[in-house]
Amino acid sequence: MTTWIKCITAKLSLSFLIFILFLLAVPLHAAQKDEQGTAEVDGAATFNECIAGLQQVAATQGIPPLVAVKTLAKVSFLPRIIELDRRQPEFTATFADYLNRRVTSERIERGRQLLEEHRDLLNRLVEIYGIPPQYLISFWGLETNYGSYLGNIPTLDALATLACDQRRSSYFTTELFNAMRLLQKPGINEPLYGSWAGAMGHTQFMPSAYLRYGVDGDGDGEVNLWTSVADALTSAANFLHNLGWKRGLRWGREVLLPQDFSFDNLGLNNKQSFEAWRNTGIRTATNGPLPSISSGTQLQAALLLPSGHQGPAFLVYDNFEVIMRWNRSEFYALAVGHLADRINGAGTLRQPPPENQPRLSIAQVKDMQTRLLVLGFEVGVPDGILGPATRQAIRAFQQSMDIKADGYPSEQVLVSLKTKTDEL
Predict the structure, then answer these.
(1) pLDDT at position 186, please?
(2) Which residues neighbour 291 within 8 Å (Cβ) at sequence distance 6 or greater?
(3) Which residues are annotated as catalytic?
């Protein structure tokens, strides 16, 4: 807790820190569960206490007291939001399930149509911001299916619910205050609607991104991401540009691994030069040699195997991590990149992800993480999320068991873990 408090102290005012400590002291109903694992409400008192605290802190964050009181007096606790937060598909879906639900033939075809429909706007945006058109269309497609579903959850209710939940209280408290600031902008009126996590508009911007990166793309003097496609795409281009998008560089590519490939350097934390990857014998998805890079270009790449060694392999570049700054999920970033490629005319993956891999629940991943810890493999605090640290621990365990060390929690890995820990 000490490190966490130091971190937020560096970013937030003392009054905000006091509020966060208040949240830690209150046994909030949003974090409690019944025997089936669903959120339960133990009365309105604790949520009302949290809202009262938020009203006081909002006044210290530059929000007029009357605005804070009036706005927060109308918010409601939504138990379903907590359930959705705990069951995000990035945490539990297999890569095959995740990708196949998002990169569909219908979405590809519609994306190609919209690419032509908005060609003039997209060409202007690539000149100004350097973001190729197919990526902007891909983000639009993944976020709201090209505006066909913008979300119907009251944004202030969702953000207040998550602000009064201990898991990510500081982040969502900040977003709640930013949503209140957004309401003071021209053309933005209550009620705001969006996703369960508070993202809004065609490209699903959080309030902070809306305030900082929203751009008037249609010249009407307002930024409205719900009603203006031009505003939404222009804002998305501005956002990606400011996140560090590199002109002329793709997100990554599917590759083929040689039969004798060593799996020692997998994951985003194990980048190597492009030339180093070429020297391992990795080839393009069409079994050709990786392209040569000019001597003056220092291109770094990481190798990802989202389905283990039996599925597709991807070399990913700097722009892949830019995509992940939009959404901190490797599955999401791979889906954005692949959908963009398909919209731009590329074919299907040469090595599709296996569709028969088991879908692990958060509880199962927590159990696996706990067993890895018992055996001395560091995963951090077991949280049920299959992140880089857990994959690294799986690789180390696989190496100790002389299993192909691809970092994937296969049935063989799960059985071997249980056997080893049961022997202790």
Answers:
(1) 86
(2) none
(3) 143
